[in-house]
Amino acid sequence: MSGPLMLVTVAEAQDWLRADTADLDTDLKLAIAGASASIMDYLKREPYPDGEVPENVRLATLLYVGIMIRDPDGVESSQWEHGYIPRPVMNILYPLRDPALE
Predict the structure, then answer these.
(1) Chain CA centroid to CA 35, Å
(2) The pTM is what?
């Protein structure tokens, strides 16, 4: 049995967030799994084969993880349309989404 989909690693998220301790590791794992699932749902596609995640998808994932870690109570989410991923993340991913699958 495999674990949750992770589009980036914990080490990559630590680097992105400039977190130099392991204190956030559990939070990062949860945020990465949640962001990864939300992003793949938004893109309406199956996971990337062999872990070959495009750089813009990796960037969007790191950005979403950063938002989740910075705003764990979801205060910022009132600024987003209900049911959608944050607009900055969506802007990165939009060109990759297949509109025929709406």
Answers:
(1) 3
(2) 0.87
Q: What does the block give as tokens for 44?
A: 């309406």
Q: Convert the pLDDT of each residue in 56-90 to its tens digit.
A: 999 999 999 999 998 887 777 777 777 789 999 99
DSSP 8-state class, residue 79: G
Report the alpha-carbon distance of residue 41 to residue 18 in Å, rounded: 28
7 within 8 A of 32, measured Cβ to Cβ: yes
Are 14 and 68 in contact by the 8 Å Cβ rule? The answer is no
Using DSSP's 3-state secondary structure scheme, residue 2 falls into: coil
Name the token pair of 92: 């990165």
Question: SS3 for 93?
Answer: helix
